[in-house]
Structures are given as C-alpha cells and as structure tokens.
Amino acid sequence: MITPWDVSDDVDYKKTMENFGIKPIKDLLKDIENPHHLMRRGIIFGHRDFERIIKSMKEHKKFTVLSGMMPSGKMHFGHKMIVDQLLYYQNYNTEIYIPIADLEAYWARGMDFETTKNLAVEEYITNYIALGLNPNKINVYLQSKNEVVKDLALKLAKRVNFSEMKAIYGFSGETNMGHMIAPIIQVADILHPQLKEKTPVVVPVGIDQDPHLRLTRDIANRAKEFKFIPPSSTYHRFMTGLLGGKMSSSKPETAIFLSDKPSKSLRKKVMSCKTGGRETLEEQKKLGGVPEECVVYELYTYHLIDDDKELKEIYDKCKSGELTCGQCKKLCYEKITEFLNDLSEKRACAREIAEEIIKE
Ligand code: SF4
Questions:
Q1: Residue, of 4 and 256, whose pLDDT is higher
Q2: Which one of 61, 162, 169, 251 is least enclosed by Cβ atoms within 10 Å?
Q3: CB-ligand 1 contact for 273 (6 Å cutoff)
Q4: Is the Cβ atom of 297 under 6 angstroms away from ligand 1?
Q5: Radius of gyration (Cα) for the chain, nearest Å?
Q6: How many angstroms is it from 322 CA to the middle of ligand 1?
Q7: Which residue positions does the secretion signal occupy (predicted)?
Q8: How far apart are alpha carbons 317 and 337 in whole angstroms?
Q9: Could you tell me if the CB of 305 is within 6 A of ligand 1?
Q10: Are the C-beta atoms of residues 77 and 259 closer than 8 Å to each other?
Q11: How far is the CA of 329 from the centre of ligand 1 (A)?
Q12: Number of domains composing the chain
C-alpha cells in the first residue's frame, strides 16, 4: 500500500500504474504542443484524464493547477520538480492554487501552526518565487484559515464512509480523528476552485499522493449537486538521493538543498554521489558507464540540463567510456554552483514577496 505518509524507497511504478489504472503519459506526448522536459524524459510517467487539460491548452481555455505542500524541512532538488511543473503551466491560461497543509501537518505530524507557516514562507514560497513563479498568478492559502475549503470539506465528508477510507489509506483504530479528516480537507482543496468557476483542474503529484486523487475523483462523481469535473492528475518519479535510496530533508547527506551555498562540503557531497561508473578507470574506458543507474546523470536529466542534445552527448560519452566519472561529477558541481548562486541572488527579493502573500 502506498499512502501520502508512508512510501518505500523502491516503488514499482509499473505495478502501481496497473493496480490503480494510471495511464502512461508517453501515449499523449504527440498531442502536446510543447511537452515539459520532465514529460519528454519519462520522469512524469503517468496521468489520469490529462487529455482534458491538453484540450484546454490547445484551445487557450482556462484551467486550474493545484499543488499543495506540507513543509517538513528544507526544500531540496526533489521538491523543485513541482515548481518546474508550475512554471510550465503558468505560461498557459491558468490560475494556480497552492494550499499549505498546516491542518494535515498538525494532525499527521504533530507540527504546530506557526512553525508550518514560517517554514512555508521562508523555505517554500520564497523559493517558488525565486525560481520564477509569478506572484500574480498564484493563490496561496493556509488550510486552517480558508473557511470556504473547511465548509466544503464538512459537506463532502458525508460522501465517503470509514471502510472506504480504511481501504484507501490503511487507517487503524490508533489513527487520530484529525488524521482521518485530513484527506477530506485535501479533497476540498482540490475541488473548491470549481465553486467559483467550472474549469478543469490538474494536480501534478508524486505517486504517493494518488490516494488523495482517487478519493477526490470518487467524491466529485458522487456529489452530483456540485456538478464537479473530476480532477486530472500527472505523476512523477521520486528523485534518488545522492547516495542511492530516497532524497530526504531529514538526511542532509542525501540531498542538495536550494539554500545550499557552494562550498567545500557541497563539492564533497557531489563528488561522493552514487554513480553508474565501473570499478576501475580501465574498465570504464573499455565498457563505458551505466547512466541509467547514476545519480549524477539523474541530476542532469531532472534539473541541470534543459537541452536534450547536450544531455544525449553526455549519455553517449558515458556509454562509450570517453567520459570519466571524475570529470562528469566536476561538471555537475559547476552546474549546481551556477544554479545555486543565481537562485540565492533572487531569493532576497522573493522573501519579501512571500511574506506579503501570506499576510494577505
Ligand atoms: Fe554517471 Fe557521468 Fe559516470 Fe556516466 S560518466 S556513470 S553519467 S558520473
């Protein structure tokens, strides 16, 4: 069972897609005018009803994008993937909603409201804006302060019973009631923009969030009086941590944080990354590397190289043995340095905007 609060390191994406009826996004790529690099490269691998969003994109019709966050620590490269998708969608006729899940953080993680709010402003919203998100296109709110969302959640709660919640989320007799209500708040987060305007909505998520999407789609179909359009969704892979396994805010050695400064220790972290290189330089030259199993190559693919041609060159040089892992990691660190320096300059101004947004 995959739940939003518990996901293992080695998710079987193929099996999960089959089990829950998630369709491959590669079948739709030909219909998307300008697919995101994460779609082209198979990192966004699946979808539900994304055809509806493609139609809106093609016809320049309005659609909504919703991406919630539950801040739990410093923002790292794995979290950046969501922002990259929001940046893509903001070029279309969209309104972007960003709920801050402070109620869920309180119920499921025991975090107090002030800590969640400060973390959301200082780390997340600040970085979202520094990365290029247009403050005029986003609608950021705290769940605990949004009366429309809470009111809708109360009404929709009667559309699902405990057995269904248990089957979807695996709740037990030990689960606190707040934790059980949290998914209904999420359902209301996703559906409430349609109370104002009936436009299709897409929710870009990691596979661990799919239970929320399944529940929301079921409830949207049952609550006939609201005439909701069931939400579309896309699913992306999780980023591998620098040493293999999961990238995690609570294990700094596994992650590159967006607030990291270029330094000896950061260089050391990059130079110690798990690669797909061979045991010896001789073998590497003879057999070539295995970029498919390499975290450095993953960093290039997900974040550091936009140009498909440049990425292919690295792939080919790795495969042929022309590129050594030492050279490759050095280049990777240079690209990370350039990215972090640029982001750090933008963050000071973004911080002020982020504070204003939450104050409103
Ligand atoms: Fe990875 Fe680069 Fe080594 Fe290839 S050469 S295995 S891409 S670090």
A1: 256
A2: 162
A3: no
A4: yes
A5: 21
A6: 10
A7: none
A8: 23
A9: no
A10: no
A11: 8
A12: 2
State the Cα–Cα distance between residues 21 and 218, nearest whole angstrom. Answer: 14
| Contact 288 CB / ligand 1 (< 6 Å) | no
For 47, phi then psi, to 5°, come to: -160, 165
Residue of 80, 81, 72, 87 whose CA lies nearest to 258: 80
Task: Assess if residue 330 is contained within a domain.
Answer: yes
Does the predicted interface ipTM exceed a cut of 0.90? Answer: yes
In a domain, 288, yes or no: yes
Residue 268's domain comprises: 260-348
Q: Taking a C-beta distance cutoff of 8 angstroms, is the pair 95, 167 a contact?
A: no
Would you say the CB of residue 230 lies under 6 angstroms from ligand 1? no
Instruction: Say if ligand 1 is within 6 A of residue 328 CB.
Output: yes
293 and 208 part of one domain: no
- Integer distance in angstroms from the first to the last C-alpha of the chain? 39
Query: Ligand 1 centroid vs 275 CA: distance in angstroms?
Result: 6
343 C-alpha vs ligand 1 centroid, how far in Å?
Answer: 26
Q: DSSP per residue over 1-47, as a string?
A: --BTTB--SS--HHHHHHHHTPEEGGGGGGG-SS--HHHHTTSEEEE
> Which pTM does this prediction carry?
0.93
Q: What is the CATH number of the domain that holds 132?
A: 3.40.50.620
C-alpha–C-alpha distance, residues 181 and 284, integer Å? 54
152 lines ligand 1 (CB under 6 A): no
> For residue range 316-329, what is the model confidence (pLDDT) as tens digits?
999 999 999 999 99
CA-CA distance, 69 to 79, in Å (whole number)?
A: 10
Mean pLDDT confidence for 59-68: 97
Q: Are strands 201-206 and 138-142 parallel, antiparallel or unpaired?
A: unpaired
Q: For residue 356, with 0-12 CB atoms within 10 Å meaning exposed, 13-18 middle and 19 or more buried, which class applies? A: exposed
CA of 337 to the centre of ligand 1 (A): 19
